[in-house]
Amino acid sequence: MAEERNIVIAFANAVFNILDGPVTFFREKIVVPNQQHYPWYHQKFRRVPTIDECYMDDPVCSYEANIQFKRDKLVESDIINILRQRFEDCTLYEGHDQTAKCRHLWDQYNEASTNWFIKYGDLGAYGHTRDALMKQKHRMIWERRYGPVGTGMNRE
Fold this sequence. Notes:
By secondary structure, the protein is mainly alpha-helical. The chain has helices spanning 7-37, 59-94, 98-101, 103-120, 129-146. It starts with 6 loop residues before the first helix and ends in a 10-residue tail after the last helix.
């Protein structure tokens, strides 16, 4: 097989090996062995009790619930950013047909952003789990008295 190659194929293989050799070496000798030994490589956090499941005098549980709340907020914010980027990419790609072809992405983005605002909106940058719990409680009381938020204070 080696004698069947011509000089162009041999040169292309040599250039490929020069460029790919260090990358393959780094991955096989450094990245792959370290994936097995370090626990923080793609760490998956266990779910902890939420703030409504913690006792009032348990600061450790409250702290863990707050950290999990912040992680969830970051994840959901990234999901909204991805949905927004997908919609923008669709509108750029489709051009004048964007209203019909990108409608499903727009609806998904609006629903996700509405849900994000229901949970995290008006809490500010330093909002904690207790603030979110009180917000949820006040919303439930409002909906019990007046119906869904946004329909006004009409009693029926």
